[in-house]
């Protein structure tokens, strides 16, 4: 495969003249105030100031994070991010956070043949879908591929992932990793593997992905044993391998393979510690806290969340600290400590309200108002306050449907949480209605977590089968194919 020259890591950013035109006669400070007002109109919080506007116009921010994206799309209806002069997210996802912290990453859009190959044609920068990775994904997937995700068999999942090519590319690495040095193209390939796995999980859930995702993870750790030409490449490989281990760990976690998830998170944490990467360390501890809570180890969840807080303080991201506080709240709720849970929830909300910044890790794109409400709902549910849990779960589902419809899995998750909370709160008819909405989404989403929640809700509703709508939900739920 012919390679194109890579852009130098020291080249000057290209000014975003289109965005400068959108600002018009307003000063950077006036425009920043308009951005903050627009954010409040849609229930978002961003800490936009004149400096941020200047960085966008100078081209230093190639593509905004998801919070700013929602605000800009609200301010300029009918325009896409590419229409505003931004670089397609498909070229920057997974690298933005490290760029903002100052790691010397080369900005590469076309690489030599990578170690992990992705056989896929990306839209060009002129395509209005190019800045939306979810639009890219929907465009690429046929109905046959979407159905293939739901069977769970190796052959059909491989067919669904075929266009992505999540596999070890190049027999040289399998024969012996010391055959050549790892380079920036290999680092890009690992980062691309992380990006594609996250996008597919957001849309489809974890069950159909987990086994296939092990291949790029093995490839990434093979690369860590190879020599590199630059320290910056080594740092990227370590960060990419750590993030990939976390992503695969999450797929194991969400599909009910808790022991596998624990192992992958530990692997990511070890990688982060070896390379001194606080970002990967915070992410690994954050996910470990979530896993510990789900596995019935709430005290471990609290300790892991507190460790994540210690690592996250180095990163300057209020949103990350907010999410970690929610993980700690979940641990306290599991222990039945209402006061500890409320204190952590208060801290989570206060940090969230400080707004998004360019220093928020890219993997946190899912963490917006809907996720905040959804995680709080889980805390009140663990404490047995079903009515309060249902209020937050309903708000999470409504917010997600209106603001982030691409996160199909999360919409299904919040609605499943709502159904269970309503059932336990003694409102079976409303619970059945919510449960039916989840069932309608299971044509796209495969998640053992969600199916387990629905099964629990069905058991709670069984004594109320004569209530309005309940029998219909129970019949549809009983007809679901059981995933082995």
- The tally of helices reads 23
Low-confidence stretches: 1-11, 93-177
Distance between the termini: 41 Å
Shape: globular
The chain-level mean pLDDT equals 78
Largest beta sheet: strand ordering = 1-2
Largest sheet: 2 strands, antiparallel
Our Rg estimate from Cα atoms comes to 22 Å
Measured as a percent range, the helix fraction is: 55-70%
Question: What share of residues are in beta strands?
Answer: under 5%
| Helix-strand topology string | HHHHHEHHHEHHHHHHHHHHHHHHH
Structural class: mainly alpha
Protein name: Tetratricopeptide repeat protein
Region (Disordered): 1-24, 91-110
Biased composition (Polar residues): 1-14
How would you summarize the topology of this molecule?
Layout: H1 17-23, H2 28-41, H3 50-58, H4 66-75, H5 96-101, E1 116-117, H6 133-140, H7 143-149, H8 154-161, E2 167-168, H9 171-175, H10 184-204, H11 210-224, H12 231-254, H13 258-275, H14 278-294, H15 298-312, H16 318-334, H17 338-352, H18 369-382, H19 386-403, H20 408-424, H21 428-441, H22 448-461, H23 470-478
Antiparallel strand pairs: 1-2
